[in-house]
Design goal:
By secondary structure, the protein is mostly beta strands. The protein has 1 helix and 7 strands; from the N terminus they run βββββββα.
């Protein structure tokens, strides 16, 4: 039975350290990971602002964020305005 890889929802940075928000679409669970953390059978082995690399045994998988997934500045400004 194939294992569904997680989905990359975003990458955030705090105090110079990056974390990746991943989702398991089968169980609807989300987790914020740093390099070396595990999510299911996958381990986060590398990340930058737009890409993460996961490893399971000898298999590696790169997940990327593209422009369609990331909100534009206009959308972010509207969301921030709604919160004020």
């Amino acid at each position: 039975m194939p294992i569904n890889p997680p989905v990359l929802l975003g990458v955030v940075g705090e105090n110079g350290k990056l974390s990746a928000l991943l989702e398991d679409t089968m169980s609807n669970t989300r987790k914020l990971l740093r390099k070396g953390d595990a999510f299911g059978n996958w381990t986060l082995v590398a990340l930058d602002r737009k890409r993460v690399t996961l490893q399971m045994s000898d298999q590696q998988l790169a997940l990327t964020l593209d422009a369609a997934q990331t909100p534009s500045n206009e959308t972010q400004n509207k969301q921030q305005g709604a919160l004020q």
